[in-house]
């Protein structure tokens, strides 16, 4: 049974944290008609349930109990205990005997005419606890006067391994955390924080320092020097089941501990695969200003260096064979074959008319004016890019290199090779001016 609960707890924890239950059609919103983070505890002779309200439940909740772990196959054997309104987060029930029962909460359906009166969704650690809970009829009656906390940890039965003490101290450039435990509590999770860790909610702001095995000796931590730290230790199995209990001096330190700032660290510690990476290292100055080299003694300006005769000869050979890299020949004027045809209509016909009557005849200034008038009206993306490509060539042939550069740059996405040749030529001509 214990092995089964461990498997259920691990599976439920992964499902509860990573997988949403429903998604509304057409939207990315999650539909979760059930409470979450259910807690079941004992207060005197009463069973106290607490949970987090769901915004998707508008008709309240139904509270049940069962002799066995509840699921869809045995739900008909569950006993309805009562109802809670939407927005309520707790429910108190007085059982008639000391038998252990499973308590769970379901969201009620607003319109049950077409199906069940509640959403029969069973998710461990969200609306179903892992363990059964029982009360003792011999409880001290004064205990019923104490208020029920939001998270009620169950007391560990006799013989169950528990943590009995924690001590954090400095040792040179490390903080040594010693843990005392009774029995074999399994793997332990060590948290570090810059604020006291008093409740389970404080663990959300803490850093997971390491996961260690019991009996492995004290844990050596290497945090940033000069900062006060608090430590807490919890059993890994308690994290899986959601039943956390923190007590100062038992599994959480009450006094801060820090490493003296300025200690020279000889080497970095070795950490296991389950440990979290250390924070940013503390800056340690190992030399003084007297040892520093004055600024401005040497001139950092690069010096001109003469090349050897063999290198000069090689450069001359490359330039002779391939020509100067700073020269670019004027590319030939490009006219696409389809633009020399008289067919088509609308935008294409107007564009082909300008190409045939002006651009193809060498009237580049008039072609530039006509392409500008053509682009003054809304055109399709393809025709606009082609018109800019033609206008860029016409401007380049007319000597308007700056205007041609920007037109060809915009047309480069559609006519990369043709535009790139003209852009190289234009940049070379502009560099001469």
Description:
With 433 residues, the protein is an alpha+beta fold. It contains eight helices and 14 strands. The chain has helices spanning 2-18, 236-241, 309-322, 347-359, 364-375, 381-398, 401-411, 416-432, and strands at 22-23, 30-31, 36-43, 46-52, 61-66, 79-84, 90-93, 102-107, 163-171, 174-181, 188-193, 207-212, 219-221, 230-235. The strands form five sheets. A three-stranded antiparallel beta sheet has the order 3-4-7, with no helix packed on it. A three-stranded antiparallel beta sheet has the order 6-5-8, with no helix packed on it. Helix 4 (347-359) packs antiparallel against helix 5, helix 6 packs antiparallel against helix 7 (401-411) and helix 7 packs antiparallel against helix 8. It is elongated, with a radius of gyration of 39 Å. It starts with a helix and ends with a helix. Mean pLDDT is 78; it is low at 13-27, 139-160 and 266-277.
Outline of the structure:
The protein has 433 residues and is α+β, with helices and mostly antiparallel strands.
Tell me the distance between the termini. Answer: 88 Å
Tell me the major beta sheet. 3 strands, antiparallel
Give the overall shape.
elongated
Topology, number of strands:
14
Q: Which percent range describes the beta-strand content? A: 15-25%
Task: Briefly note the structural class of the backbone.
Answer: alpha+beta
Q: Strands of the largest sheet, in order across it? A: 3-4-7
> What's the order of the H and E elements?
HEEEEEEEEEEEEEEHHHHHHH
Mean pLDDT: 78
Radius of gyration: 39 Å
Helix content: 10-25%
Task: Show unreliable segments.
Answer: 13-27, 139-160, 266-277
Number of helices: 8
């Amino acid at each position: 049974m214990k092995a089964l609960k461990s498997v259920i707890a691990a599976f439920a924890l992964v499902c509860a944290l990573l997988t949403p239950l429903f998604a509304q059609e057409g939207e990315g919103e999650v539909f979760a008609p059930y409470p979450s983070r259910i807690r079941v505890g004992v207060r005197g002779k009463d069973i106290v349930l607490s949970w987090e309200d769901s915004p998707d439940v508008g008709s309240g909740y139904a509270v049940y109990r069962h002799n066995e772990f509840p699921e869809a196959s045995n739900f008909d054997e569950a006993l309805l205990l009562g109802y809670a309104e939407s927005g309520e987060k707790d429910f108190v029930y007085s059982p008639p005997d000391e038998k252990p029962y499973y308590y769970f909460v379901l969201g009620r359906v607003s319109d049950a005419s077409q199906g069940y009166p509640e959403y029969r969704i069973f998710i461990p650690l969200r609306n179903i606890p892992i363990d059964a809970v029982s009360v003792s009829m011999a409880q001290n009656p004064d205990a019923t006067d104490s208020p029920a906390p939001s998270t009620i940890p169950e007391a560990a039965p006799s013989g169950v391994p528990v943590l009995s003490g924690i001590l954090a101290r400095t040792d040179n450039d490390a903080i040594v955390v010693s843990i005392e435990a009774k029995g074999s509590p399994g793997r332990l999770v060590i948290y570090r924080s810059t604020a006291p860790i008093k409740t389970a909610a404080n663990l959300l702001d803490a850093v997971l320092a390491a996961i260690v095995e019991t009996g492995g000796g004290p844990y050596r931590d290497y945090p940033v020097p000069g900062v006060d730290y608090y430590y807490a230790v919890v059993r890994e199995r308690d994290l899986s089941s959601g039943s956390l209990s923190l007590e100062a001096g038992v599994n959480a330190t009450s006094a801060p501990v820090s490493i003296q700032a300025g200690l020279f660290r000889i080497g970095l510690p070795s950490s296991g695969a389950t440990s979290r990476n250390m924070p940013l290292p503390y800056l340690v100055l190992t030399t003084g200003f007297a040892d520093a080299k004055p600024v401005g003694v040497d001139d950092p300006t690069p010096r001109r260096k003469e090349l050897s005769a063999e290198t000069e000869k090689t450069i001359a050979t490359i330039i002779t064979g391939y020509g100067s890299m700073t020269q670019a020949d004027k590319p030939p004027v490009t006219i696409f074959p389809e633009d020399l045809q008289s067919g088509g209509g609308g935008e294409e016909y107007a564009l082909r008319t300008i190409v045939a009557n002006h651009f193809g005849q060498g009237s580049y200034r008039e072609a530039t004016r006509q392409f500008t008038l053509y682009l003054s009206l809304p055109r399709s993306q393809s025709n606009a890019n082609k018109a800019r490509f033609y206008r860029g060539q016409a401007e380049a042939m007319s000597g308007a290199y700056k205007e041609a550069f920007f037109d060809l740059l915009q047309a480069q996405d559609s006519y990369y090779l043709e535009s790139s040749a003209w852009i190289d030529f234009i940049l070379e001509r502009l560099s001469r001016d």
